[in-house]
Specification:
CATH superfamily of the largest domain: Transferase(Phosphotransferase) domain 1
Mean pLDDT: 76
InterPro entries: Kinase-like_dom_sf (IPR011009), Prot_kinase_dom (IPR000719)
Shape: elongated
Organism: Triticum aestivum
Order of helices and strands: EEHEHEHHHEHEEEHEEHEEHHHHH
Strand content: 15-25%
CATH architecture of the largest domain: Orthogonal Bundle
Protein name: Protein kinase domain-containing protein
Low-confidence stretches: 85-138, 336-347
CATH topology of the largest domain: Transferase(Phosphotransferase), domain 1
CATH class of the largest domain: Mainly Alpha
Structural class: alpha+beta
Radius of gyration: 31 Å
Number of helices: 13
Number of strands: 12
Distance between the termini: 111 Å
GO molecular function: ATP binding; protein kinase activity
Helix content: 25-40%
Largest sheet: 10 strands, mixed
């Protein structure tokens, strides 16, 4: 695509989207872009099937923009290839005839004071694709509604796959990542509340550590298949790379800035830390037992997917509107390779594990240790890791359970056995030797075994009661006959 002298003088923002093709040359990309004298921002979306195609076109894109005297801001994003409108042979002819790069699908956004020169230039170039030639955008409201619909429809469809999201959408729903929308921070990034037009809410995380596109997209790909009722739902992502131009010794220097964003469902009922209380009050045992089981099921799912959590704490377990616990902030190790423990993150839960303190390797068993700490915190309501007085914990729960034995509750002995199993699991997970810690598979098996035992007890009690009733009926019948 080329621009002539005097073309579109008031154009300030230029958006382009195009496909790359094997063997294609990009030497003349955006030739004459320096003629767009008021250009301030350039955004490109490159549909590339291969990394080499992406790299070649990205390099040419940046080189072309660097020739502009005003050094406009620019961003380049790797997206899925656009659906082709012509057969390959036809498109090849179109490219040769028109001299256009790829099948450029662009939107040229004009300033409010766009004048007749822009329309004159368009009228002189009738062969431009219709998406480029049509420079009069929809109304702002319609455009916003269309953008928001991407996330709104995903929230209504549990089976929808995570999508690549436009930065403009994330900026819009977070009010340009304003402080007012910030809802939390962690070692991994800043959390923003995203408000959609239909009243729904999502969470946008701006990652704290930049990674190259390939590593980020590989990491995202590993998370797209994560779907579990006890794992926060991943909705989409955005990889934005743009240039910031600074002056140094009279020369303009372009610095590449990488921004990485992820979007998740919003969990409205706070985190587990908010609900931790001792045995005498707070959640009853039935609720605590359910939460412990569901957290274990969520972590087992992640480990089964070969995803290490690394920072499992009550603050990273959130509740939805039905008080279902969900693990958040998972899988970030994929974005920084295997050696995340050496990236400078200094407050992760695994750093409290004996093996880390002893200089040993960080493995999935580090997650297990953190899980044990969380289980004991739920059982005792205390944040301390000192669980030496397990006998006292069990006695406290026996006393609480006696008070809670109202109609509809399970038997005292059944609940007490569940407490004992949870304490046993928690202590096993916190073993100093990682090799002695339980696996998530074994933990799930222990819960299943407890459920089977409980059903067996119920069955035995019911059978015994039935036998007693039958024997009593026979005795009454015998006495009646004797009379």
């Amino acid at each position: 695509m080329s621009f002539m002298s005097g073309a579109m003088r008031n154009l300030r923002r230029l958006k382009l989207r195009f496909n790359t093709h094997i063997g294609e040359k990009y030497d003349n990309m955006l030739a004459g872009v320096e003629h767009l004298i008021n250009l301030q921002d350039v955004a490109g979306q490159i549909g590339a099937a291969t990394e080499s195609g992406w790299r070649a076109s990205e390099s040419a894109f940046k080189e072309a923009i660097s020739k502009h005297p005003r050094c406009p801001n620019f961003s380049v994003k790797w997206v899925d290839p656009l659906e082709e409108e012509y057969r390959h042979s036809e498109k090849q002819h179109q490219r040769q005839e028109r001299g256009l790069l790829g099948e450029i699908h662009g939107v040229l956004e004009k300033a409010e004071d766009t004048n007749k020169y822009d329309d004159d230039w368009l009228s002189q170039n009738p062969d431009l694709p219709s998406s480029v030639a049509s420079c009069h955008p929809k109304s702002e409201k319609t455009a916003e509604a269309s953008k928001h619909h991407v996330l709104e429809s995903m929230l209504c469809d549990e089976s929808a796959e995570p999508k690549a999201l436009d930065l403009s959408l994330l900026e819009d729903i977070t009010n340009n990542f304003s402080d007012d929308q910030e809802i939390g921070r962690s070692e991994f990034g800043v959390l923003y509340k995203g408000n959609l037009q239909n009243g729904s809410t999502v969470v946008v995380k701006k990652l704290a550590i930049a990674t190259d596109d390939k590593l980020f997209l590989d990491g995202v790909h590993g998370l797209t298949s994560v779907k579990h009722s006890n794992i926060v739902r991943f909705l989409g992502y955005c990889a934005n790379t743009h240039g910031n131009v600074t002056k140094e010794r009279g020369k303009s220097i372009s610095v590449m800035v990488q921004e990485r964003f992820m979007c998740f469902e919003y969990l409205c009922n706070g985190n587990l830390q908010m609900y931790l209380t001792d045995e005498s009050c707070g959640f009853d045992w039935h609720t605590r037992y359910r939460i412990i089981k569901e957290i274990c099921q969520g972590l087992h799912y992640l480990h089964d997917k070969r995803i290490a959590r690394l920072d499992l704490t009550p603050g990273n377990i959130l509740f939805d509107e039905k008080m279902v616990p969900k693990i958040v902030d998972f899988g970030y190790s994929k974005f920084w390779g295997e050696d995340i423990s050496r990236t400078g993150l200094r407050s992760l839960a695994y750093m409290a594990t004996p093996e880390y303190l002893d200089g040993g390797a960080i493995t999935y068993k580090s997650d297990i240790y953190s899980l044990g700490v969380v289980i004991m915190q739920i059982v005792t309501g205390r944040n301390k890791k000192d669980c030496s007085n397990t006998a006292g914990v069990l006695e406290n729960w026996r006393n609480r359970l006696k008070l809670d034995m109202s109609p509809g509750h399970r038997s005292l002995e059944t609940c007490y056995q569940q407490v004992k199993v949870c304490v046993e699991i928690g202590m096993s997970c916190m073993d100093h030797n990682p090799g002695n810690r339980s696996t998530t598979q074994h933990i799930i098996h222990m819960f299943d075994k407890t459920e089977v035992t409980e059903q067996s007890i119920r069955s035995d009690v019911g059978s015994s009661y039935l036998q007693q009733m039958i024997a009593r009926s026979k005795e009454i019948f015998r006495l009646v006959v004797a009379e």
